[in-house]
């Protein structure tokens, strides 16, 4: 149930208006800008991240960040830029990693949707240790029907890892899905579904909640 072209246009217009508001924070303006580019899922956010990360070290440092703000025509006091950067850099490492970037700029999700995402996560995390790994999937999901398992290229463990990594950002091949990563992934999915009722239905069917 993707948004129709009309709704898409309306969203872009709304975001354009938001961009022109002066009393919103640079972070909100950056988010508005990114949403106005039609950014939805992890893949497109990954594209934005890559463009801002000009030295390609998979981190956005302060100068790359301010450069991106200026390139989008967002000029504010340096203290405001600094506050905004610190707000995204939640673990205070001095740079923004991909997960922090997605968390700050992802499309918003309603409480109802977030609750469904957390229920799905809790169900998948069958051993209840707060992360999803192949250990949770063993005996619960069948990886043996995957074509690469059938032709002998992958073990069932590799099938599980490949699937788990689809919830992670690019270049994250940890085979482990954290709650935040799962939420970030579904924020992207959620943005293309207009009504809560369809999101609810999709989650219930996908995860048999
Ligand atoms: Ca960088
Ligand atoms: Ca950080
Ligand atoms: Ca687990």
Would you report the number of β strands?
2
Query: What value does the Rg take, in angstroms?
Result: 19 Å
Low-confidence runs (pLDDT<50, min 5 residues)? none
State which percent range the strand residues make up: under 5%
Shape: globular
Distance between termini? 20 Å
Largest sheet: 2 strands, antiparallel
CATH topology description of the largest domain: Recoverin, domain 1
**Helix count, DSSP H or I runs of 4 or more residues:** 12
CATH architecture of the largest domain: Orthogonal Bundle
When the domains are counted, the total is 2
Order of strands across the biggest sheet?
Answer: 1-2
| Hetero compounds | calcium ion
Name the average pLDDT. Answer: 85
The secondary-structure class comes to: mainly alpha
Q: What is the CATH C level class of the largest domain, in words?
A: Mainly Alpha
**Residue share in helices?**
55-70%
**Superfamily (CATH H level) name of the largest domain:** EF-hand
InterPro entries: Ca-bind, EF-hand-dom_pair, EF_Hand_1_Ca_BS, EF_hand_dom
GO molecular function, one term: calcium ion binding
Pfam families: EF-hand_5, EF-hand_7
Protein name: EF-hand domain-containing protein
